[in-house]
Amino acid sequence: MEAIIKVSHLTKTFRELTAVNDLSFTVQKGDVYGFLGQNGAGKSTSIRMLLTLIQPTSGSIEVFGYNLQHHRKEILRNTGAVIERPDLYKYLSAYETLQLFAAMSSVKLTRQQYMDQLELVGLAQRANSKVRTFSQGMKQRLGIAVALVHNPELIVLDEPTNGLDPQGIADMRNLILMLREKMKKTVLVSSHLLSEVEQIANRMLIIDKGKKLVEGTVSELFHPDDTVVLIETTNQPACEELLRNSNYATQLIGIDAAGIELKLRKEEVPVLTKMLIENNISILGIHACHSLEDYFLKITTANQHVEPFKN
After folding, report:
1. Which of 80, 214, 297, 310 has the fewest CB atoms within 10 Å of its CB?
2. In which residue ranges of the chain is pLDDT below 70?
3. Pair 81, 147: CB distance under 8 Å
4. Signal peptide span per the entry (predicted)?
5. Do residues 186 and 194 lie in contact, with contact meaning Cβ atoms separated by under 8 Å?
């Protein structure tokens, strides 16, 4: 597969704060790539570096095979983006908004092409309505129309469902899927909502505190029949050695003071339990995360420190 984005060891510091920490990932041509993490995880900072809005402290970014630092103009000509809430002129109509941004991009379109663009995002019937009369969801969809006005290959969306009601979220989800399936665009979409990313992305990255936790295809990370299991024992080193020398070695996903984590099919849990008992491993507990949300919250909050309450 052709790599559209290749980020290598990207780091961004603001004085004493490290917002992005040695981050590497690859977005392939045709992906809807989910960039997932809780608020403050470093997603927006990473995207701003990708769009040259801020400079990285270290590391490199390649887009379309070109180094971003040396080929900025060529890359941005083929990239469209909506960063959080789109910044639109509220006293212009939807049609006038597209005209303005097309002119700014030195793109010449016919009236029919403008209308086709608005039809694409479900706003053709509101072409002459002022942006100030639009709901937040309509503004988000118009923002995507603006991002598409120069027909870019890569679309970058930063938290596109923020502030939307359930219908607006569904509309945005369908629009993103359409960008990939019908228009053959590559889409990088950041979100803190696992449930939304799971429904639209074919590959995803989860980051926390600026660092990559996991990356892969959605089916690899979150098979619907898989369960993340935490094993607590009285002798963790012996349990770990047993598992590493067993058929479960490839299913180990984490080992820390809390216990040993594996990703298993649900029917494998009792089989694993029997094996541990037969090998004299004393089990304190086996805890299953039954939802993707549980797994996401667990891996993104594992190292968070909560200050004690003080009067």
Report:
1. 310
2. 219-220, 222-226, 289-311
3. yes
4. none
5. no
Specify the residue for token string 């990473």: 46
* Beta bridge partners of residue 263, listed in sequence order: 228
Burial of 229 (C-beta count, 10 Å sphere; 0-12/13-18/19+): buried
Q: Give one DSSP letter per residue of 169-220, joined into a string.
A: HHHHHHHHHHHHHTT--EEEEEES-HHHHHHH-SEEEEEETTEEEEEEEHHH
Q: Under a CB-based contact definition with an 8 Å cutoff, are residues 29 and 186 in contact?
A: yes
CA–CA separation, 146 and 127 (whole Å): 13
Cβ-contact 1, 202 below 8 angstroms? no
Q: Which residue ranges make up each domain of the chain?
A: 3-218, 223-301
Looking at residue 293, what is its pLDDT? 62
- Tens digits of residue pLDDT in 73-105: 999 999 999 987 777 899 999 999 999 999 998
Q: For the whole model, what pTM was predicted?
A: 0.76
Distance (Å, rounded) from C-alpha 14 to C-alpha 147?
Answer: 29
**Contact assessment for residue 177 and residue 208, using Cβ atoms and an 8 Å cutoff:** no
Q: What is the CATH number of domain 3-218?
A: 3.40.50.300
117-128 burial code (b ≥16 CB/10 A, e <16): bbebbbbeebbe
Token pair for 159: 């938290």
pLDDT value at residue 311: 38
State residue 305's pLDDT score. 44
CATH level 2 (architecture), domain 223-301: 2-Layer Sandwich (3.30)
**Which amino acid appears at position 110 of this protein?**
T
| 18 Cβ contact partners less than 8 Å away, ≥ 6 residues apart | 11, 12, 210
Contact 185, 191 (CB under 8 A): no
Name residue 208's beta-bridge partners.
Answer: 211
Joined tokens for residue 192: 């803190």
